[in-house]
Design goal:
The protein is an all-alpha fold. It contains 15 helices and no strands. It has 2 domains: 91 residues, no CATH class; 154 residues, MetI-like (MetI-like fold). The longest helix is centred in the first third of the chain and has 32 residues. The relative contact order is 0.13. It is a multi-pass membrane protein.
Length: 289
């Protein structure tokens, strides 16, 4: 057990106090959103800021799920997140593995082209024309296929593969394993930290994305969760409080907050389980470029 001096103990208390204050500053806005979503409008008007409600009502959540198409949007977003992330990781690994081999012909040229895309893009209009020519407009696959590989994530995984001892693959080849067998049975099990990190990067990106759906989709039944959330916030904000009161609906502020909660909580639940892989995965994959 380490014996701390009086000064070190005081400094430790100060550090913990500052960390607690910062944690509360980050947590309070979300607590306010959750509280308003389950608080009757009269209490919100009376108190102004509500953190711990005196009474609870879930009419705002009922309004969100029944009247605003959140259920269908959840299906599209789950399809995009699960299928998209799986394909993202698959194609990123298949591209990063050969690029991690220095004996690959033209390796430097491929890497230059890949890094170039991190700084420059074709622009929105050429991209739209390309996607239209591929027949992907108004299809759920338009949310996945154009974003199959992130150059940044590819560089991270490539760097991780380069750090693995070459003797591991050599021993696999001596035993008769092919390149794909060595990748599947040897390399990938050793790469779980970086794969978990990249998977979360891709999943959060899919879950939070909305701009591509606005540009490439016209069917309301194909809109992902974030677009529906955006529409809820804009539509309710444009309605007057008097019109909502006359229609007998729940408070517009509670509906807005409930929509924010139902679109945020799922990714918050997954995030803590993957967070432990962040530092290890990103650092191990970024030592070499």
């Amino acid at each position: 057990m380490i014996n701390l001096t009086v000064g070190e103990k005081i400094w430790q208390v100060v550090v913990y106090f500052i960390l607690i204050i910062l944690a509360l500053l980050c947590l309070l806005p979300f607590l306010y959103v959750v509280a308003v979503s389950v608080t009757p409008e009269s209490e919100v008007v009376r108190k102004g800021i509500v953190i711990i409600p005196e009474s609870f009502t879930f009419l705002a959540y009922k309004e969100v799920f029944i009247s605003h198409g959140i259920g269908q949007a959840y299906k599209i977003t789950l399809f995009r997140t699960i299928v998209g992330t799986a394909l993202n990781v698959l194609f990123t690994v298949l591209a990063a593995y050969p690029l991690s081999k220095k004996y690959l012909p033209g390796r430097s040229t491929f890497l230059i082209f890949i890094v170039f895309t991190m700084m420059f893009s074709g622009g929105l209009i050429p991209t739209y024309l390309l996607i239209r020519s591929l027949g992907l407009l108004n299809s759920p696959w338009v949310l996945i296929i154009p974003h199959l590989i992130s150059a940044f994530n590819l560089v991270i995984i490539k760097g991780f593969f380069e750090q693995l001892p070459a003797e591991i693959e050599e021993s696999a080849r001596v035993d008769g394993a092919s390149e794909l067998q060595a990748l599947w049975r040897i390399i990938l099990p050793l790469s779980m930290p970086v794969l978990a990190t990249i998977s979360l990067f891709y999943a959060v990106g899919h879950w939070n994305s909305y701009f591509d759906a606005i540009v490439y989709l016209n069917d309301a039944n194909l809109m992902p969760l974030q677009v529906v959330l955006r529409n809820i916030l804009l539509n309710i904000a444009s309605e007057s409080a008097e019109s909502m009161a006359n229609s007998g609906t729940v408070s517009k502020f509670a509906v807005q907050m409930a929509a924010v909660v139902v679109t945020t909580v799922p990714i918050l639940i997954v995030y803590p389980f993957m967070q432990k892989h962040f530092t290890k995965g990103v650092l191990m994959g970024s030592i070499k470029g």
